[in-house]
Amino acid sequence: MRLVVNGEPTVLEPAPASVAELLVRLRVPLERVAVELNGEIVTRAERAGRPVKDGDTVEVVTLVGGG
Amino acid sequence: MTIKDTPLQLGPITLASRLIVGTGKYKDLDETADCLRLSGADMVTVAIRRVPPKKEGERSLWDVIPPSMHILPNTAGCYTVDDCLRTARLGRELLGERGKLVKVEVIGDEKTLFPDVAATIEATRALVKEGFVCLPYVTDDPVACLRLIDVGAAAVMPLAAPIGSGLGIRNPHNLAIILEVVKAKRPDLPVIVDAGVGVPSDAARVLEMGVDGVLMNTAIAQASNARLMAEAMRDGVRAGRAAYLAGRMPMKLYASASSPLQGLIHAR
């Protein structure tokens, strides 16, 4: 499966079934990120039930230092 | 002497300290943690960015912000209303109950980082409708501050000087006018000076004028000794607020002797 994750073309085989599975595969701290799928927020509660499709664009963000 | 003061109220959040500090530009996370503590602040600002690749066991900003501190996510780096709204929504999703507030920041110029005022007003209007408590960063423009109140801002945050410049208060008269017009319209609405402060006397000076709070990052983080500057800023803000509450003496053009004129041992 080809995705664009945080601006980077990413190939994941086997394909993750859900946003929740994708996040585990990306090895991000699950409780410390927010996710946007094709420009739309996927809440924590929706992650397990939201499928990921070939060609999707995913943004995974967190807190960083700022003023 | 203990200061008898009402706390700073930002929407639903009550802050004992009138200093809000940023979390960027520190040398490392230990310095960040120490400065947050030493500043005495109850609220910190953070930015929302793409998650960096995870390194096992590595600490992140999450680990050094005490659970007792309020978090104010910003929309720094956004140049359009849409990007600002997206970033604000991601911040709220990320922080859950801790993410009710947002520092609305829509930049209009890369070199000065001055805000795009029209876009800031539009973004604030949209975010207020979505239930955000909006604290917009804005130019030191009294009319812009009034327009932000019209669209539902919970506070206005005029700059003292460009972000990260440390120039201090470039236009104290505009700040005085902002205080006058904002308080005339909404006496309870906080005015917070955000950006440009360089030294504690800058912070003290705006607090002395009646500004409700100060938000700063670089002035602490880029000091040679950031920890000592965090304490100095804490004291500067406290002194400025105390002086405002104490009420300054009236200014006079000519001298007024402090020692009695009676009982002099010589004739005048």
Beta-strand portion of chain B reads: 5-15%
Separation, N- and C-terminal Cα atoms of chain A? 38 Å
| Strand arrangement, major sheet of chain B | 5-4-3-10-9
Fraction of helical residues of chain A: 10-25%
Class by helix and strand content of chain A? mainly beta
Helices of chain B, by number, come to 9
Compute the average pLDDT of chain B: 95
| Shape, per Cα inertia axes of chain A | globular
Question: Helix and strand string of chain B, N-terminal first?
Answer: EEEHEHEHEHEHEHEHEHH
How many alpha or pi helices of chain A?
A: 1
Uncertain regions spanning at least 5 consecutive residues of chain A: none
Residue share in β-strands of chain A: 35-45%
Please tell me how large the radius of gyration of chain B is: 20 Å
The strand count of chain A comes to: 5
Spatial separation of the terminal alpha carbons of chain B: 41 Å
CATH class categorisation of chain A: Alpha Beta
Structural class given helices, strands, pairing of chain B?
Answer: alpha/beta
Which homologous superfamily in CATH is the superfamily of chain A?
Answer: Beta-grasp domain
Largest sheet of chain A: 5 strands, mixed
Helices and strands in order:
The complex is a heterodimer of chains A (67) and B (268).
Chain A: E1 2-5, E2 8-11, H1 19-25, E3 34-37, E4 40-42, E5 57-65
Parallel strand pairs in A: 1-5
Antiparallel strand pairs in A: 1-2, 3-4, 3-5
Chain B: E1 8-10, E2 13-15, E3 19-21, H1 29-39, E4 43-50, H2 61-64, E5 70-73, H3 81-95, E6 101-104, H4 117-129, E7 133-138, H5 142-150, E8 157-158, H6 172-185, E9 192-194, H7 200-209, E10 213-216, H8 218-221, H9 226-246
Parallel strand pairs in B: 3-4, 3-10, 4-5, 6-7, 7-8, 9-10
Antiparallel strand pairs in B: 1-2
Helix pairs in contact in B: 1-9, 3-4, 5-6, 7-9
Task: Summarize this entry quickly.
The complex is a heterodimer of chains A (about 70) and B (about 270). With about 70 residues, chain A is mainly β.
